[in-house]
Amino acid sequence: MLRSVKTLTALASELLARLPTMTGEEQRLGLEIYRQLAQGEPVLRSALAEALEAPTDTVDELLGHPNLKCLTYTDKQGRIIGFGGLAVREMPHRFKVDGRTLYTWCAWDSLFIPVILGLEAEVESPAPGSTVRVRLRVAPDGVERVQPLSTVMSFLLPSAQTFQADVLKAMATFCHFIFFFPDSDSAAEWTKSHPDTTVISVSDAFELGRRMVSARWSPAVMRARRRRRRSLMMGGSRAEGRAGSFGPRVENGP
Fold first, then answer.
1. Contact between residue 2 and residue 207 where contact means Cβ atoms under 8 Å apart
2. Which of 51, 144, 235, 236 is most buried, judging by how many CB atoms fall within 10 Å of its CB?
């Protein structure tokens, strides 16, 4: 359900056209940050370097790339406490995986991050101007439960500059406009006073996120899943959880 005349395909095309293309190294580092953040603790650059079998200087250099810098939020000690919509410090949108309580920067993050992590999440999110809290169970392949059933989501297409700025600006100009609402009427009322926002169904929002992940993260996600499958078949190994080193790669196929 789209409030405007845009179809989901058109919305996805416009969104992807405004997002920068990730390099393979940026994808692998970003995916490892997601994986480590999902453990519920701040992420150290040295831990990323170890997991990626890369020098810490290489990790530092990549984190300085605009594609990753605009997604990375650090504390005063330089530890990563937020990345690409996922956070270990408290935020309004609660995101629970494997018994660990994490947070997301906006409502939409809670729909696509399970796709990236390959994990099911329990989500609790406040609706603006309401005491209602929307609750969802989101699996990597779709939304399994939503309360209320009439829940919808506001959405705003980012500008081409949004993800070339610092992370706080990205949050302020994009994330702060994306919420769940208990029904389409309350969402429509809110979007009236927030120009350029639209209203989409939860199922469309999930599909939009799935397409974004496929375009921006899929190669790294698929490599990680193949490694997990091989590790499970071997009964666990030193390689389990490794993101893979940087540089030329030879894959053994799916």
1. no
2. 51
Q: Are 53 and 245 in contact (CB under 8 A)?
A: yes
Indicate the class that CATH gives domain 8-226: alpha beta
| Domain residue limits, the chain | 8-226
- What secondary structure letter does DSSP report for 40? T
> If DSSP codes are grouped into helix, strand and coil, which group holds residue 190?
helix
pLDDT in tens, 72-95: 999 999 999 999 999 999 999 999
Cβ–Cβ under 8 Å, residues 79 and 41: no
Angle made by CA atoms 123, 126, 132, in degrees to the nearest 5: 105
What is the reported pTM? 0.85
Residues linked to residue 136 through DSSP beta bridges, in sequence order: 123, 146
